[in-house]
Specification:
Blueprint lengths: L4 E12 L6 E12 L3 E6 L5 H8 L7 E6 L2 E2 L5 H11 E4 L11 H11 L4 H15 L14 H13 L5 E5 L7 H17 L4 E5 L2 H4 L4 E6 L2 E7 L7 H13 L10
Length: 259
């Protein structure tokens, strides 16, 4: 397994408000994301996952701690370096697609490249490969209103990957999909991870979605309390799913073991 650390989250805390109105969203979270890893983060509502993703994407600044991308402290990024981080170093896949209704799928996908001055020729080359992997070649000239939910999310996934970011953050990407389209999306993401060496961090509360990951961190009350690693050589998603469900059933125990 590749042990190169792309992302290092070091003792992150995030506190909102002051005095009696103070709320702690993150309580000293630390973990690494390895190159070409498909990392899942499982948590319930209000457990700090949105705050964590917003800190990694620099939309929020942690109260304490550091987040390093390839050894660089992202809190030090300003101006062009910050724009480059947000536009090229990370990709973001939203639950609600966040496609622009007045643009075709093709235009939505290559928009990040257009904003950063990438030529149409290079943009189309990158688009062609992703469209084939995500099975959306037949909707590239359609508008979002003409696409199914699954097609919209796979279009959004292509947009997240189009700039070849170091890491893609997926926030409940199957939350707005039916089970069939969710399976198709997860299969495509897994293929991109394995065959195209894409690094993905996916937040989900769905054990079926998490079973496609290679490692899972469980967050409760702003802290990591459990971790699971898949045996990638001989453990199927169905087998991994059973272990995930075992952990979920034991959430009240607060174990910090690696199973």
């Amino acid at each position: 397994m590749n042990t190169n650390r792309i992302l290092q989250v070091q003792n992150i805390t995030k506190i909102y408000g002051k005095g009696v109105n103070q709320t702690t969203a993150l309580s000293g979270i630390s973990f690494d994301v390895l190159e070409v890893e498909f990392l899942g983060i499982m948590c319930g509502s209000g457990s700090g996952k949105t705050t964590l993703l917003n800190c990694i994407s620099t939309m929020l600044k942690p109260t304490t701690g550091k987040i390093l991308l390839n050894g660089d402290d992202i809190s030090s990024f300003k101006g062009k370096s910050l724009a480059n981080y947000r536009g090229n170093k990370i990709g973001y896949l939203y639950q609600s697609f966040e496609l622009l209704d007045n643009l075709t799928a093709r235009e939505n996908i290559i928009l990040p490249l257009s904003l950063h001055g990438v030529s149409n020729q290079n943009a189309e080359k990158a688009l062609s490969s992703l469209a084939m992997h995500l099975d959306i070649t037949d909707v590239l000239d359609k508008f979002p209103s003409q696409m199914s939910g699954g097609q919209k999310q796979r279009t959004a996934a292509a947009r997240a990957f189009i700039s070849d970011p170091d890491i893609v953050l997926a926030d409940e990407p199957t939350g707005a999909l039916d089970s069939k389209n969710a399976w198709v999306l997860l299969d495509k993401l897994s293929t991109l991870n394995r065959e195209e060496n894409k690094t993905i961090v996916m937040v989900t509360h769905d054990a079926n979605a998490a079973s496609y990951c290679s490692r899972i961190l469980f967050i409760q009350d702003g802290t990591i309390f459990h971790e699971l690693r898949k045996n990638t050589k001989n453990e199927t998603p169905a087998m991994f799913y059973e272990r995930i469900m075992t952990v979920i059933a034991q959430l009240g125990g607060g174990s910090a073991n690696v199973l």
